[in-house]
Sequence to fold (569 residues):
Amino acid sequence: MDFKSIIAEKIAMSLESAYDNHDLSAEQIAQVIEIPPDTAMGDYAFPCFRLSKSLRKAPPVIADALKQNIDMALLQEVQSVKGYLNFYIDKATFAREVIASVRDQGARYGASDIGAGKTICLDYSSINIAKRFHIGHLSTTMIGNALKNIYEFLGYTTVGINHLGDWGTQFGKMVAAYKLWGDREQIEQGGVNAMVSLYVRFNEEAKSDPELAELGRHWFKKIEDGDEEALSIFNWFKEVTLQDAQRVYEKLGVRFDSYAGESFYNDKMGRVIDELREKNLLVESDGAQVVDLSDYNMPPALIQKSDGATLYMTRDLAAALYRKDAYDFDKCLYVVAYQQDLHFRQLFKVLELMGHEWSRDCEHVAFGMVSFEGEALATRSGHVVYLDDLLDKAVEKALAIIEEKSPDLENKDEVAKQVGIGAVIFFDLYNSRIKDIDFSWDRALAFEGETGPYVQYTHARSCSVLRKAGTVTAEADYTGLNTPEAQDVLRQLDRFPAVVREAAQRYEPSLITRYSVILAQAFNKFYYENRILDDDMGVRAARLELTRATRQVIAEALRLIGVGAPERM
Ligand code: ARG
Fold:
């Protein structure tokens, strides 16, 4: 039930009977209805100022007159205060309606079909081959995953793309290093770490041995030319990296529809360069081909080096054209750190200059940096926190807490995974994405405060209340939800669908993370201040229904951001 439209209807009817020269329709009225900042001023308020001119009356006079004729069905009270008409919805009716929508729509509560027939491409995680997955890649992975869940919930078709960093001269060096010093077993056992050591050694020795650089170029050329040996080593490096990454993705519960990375576009470069040339966009600069962007206050976009090699930009242009062709997207989102802001502005501008109107459907969803316990993550200084280790440690710590708090819990290991990993994800998605975050164990794993474990614990608590209550057959007496605490929970439940839509619109999963905390806090307040298992069976039934609705919406909110909701903790 949409209370706002119902109230607009009531105002329109009252207006009709009080004045014959007004000029507002119910829809126009609905647009000016406000939600007062303080519930003491009502659930909805209608400002009468706009009518003042056409009716030639002071706003308070109009409010008084309108009040006389309001149809009071569903309402508890209407007040005329300083030119505003304040509406108080009948509390029990509000409770009944909200609970019915949550219950009847079930897993679809908050969902929608606004995205039906539309496709959204999401480029996220996009890790680099032969590098370990470190916490710098956590945000892109989890923001992208959450956006995918959110858009699917709203009816969109989504395409999750891991645009692998699997092209570049460094791979020539890696193959060269492998040929010089590596062996199969070492890589098979050591995985990405072994590759990284080879690469580090190569760069070390290249400082005193200039021939190595030449050797690196030689092997890269071979990869480019499709030399069988070079490619098979390179592809094997890729496989090993992806196997490593897959372990992390499984822990995080993340999946992709496509792993088409940079090298996928090797044979699709000609088209980009031809199209740029045809449209007269390429100019030469120091032997390289670039697109001049000085009219837009940006440095030139580098398309092709003097030796013919293409660049990150060229591959992104090819990828955008490919995605438009393959998926005919309505939106293409790039979930990438804000450091690449210029790259994406250049990319979208070049697409626009090429005449692709859909360039405005491409968007850079930027996010801030992650540091760890106050220390920046610098690959060079050697202080790197690997995601895999971080997740294992989170599970370990969660297990220790569970052992202490609920030693009798049955599936401790499973719960520890949901809590530990959930805590890391929740922490990552709690602040608006553009803010830098400093990861801290104490803050992420606390059971109090704005954390994953706190929300999960509230969910487990609601499950436990429902288990203890067993079946209640009495009909719900919704006046049992007239308390301020219960009403607050209801208001939070009622706004869930709007929160989901806003999160999608602003590419901001944190709105849902924060919402889950606010709902959990409201429920806990209700739990402490109101007796759920009241002696009056009608009241008890209503309070249990509220508990059930809360449990459902918390679990759904957590699912959307990629966090599990254990039933016992
Ligand atoms: N592999 C890049 C990195 O780790 C991110 C790629 C982002 N996606 C894109 N289409 N450029 O920095």
In short: The two ends are 35 Å apart (CA to CA). The mean pLDDT is 94. The chain has 20 helices and twelve strands.
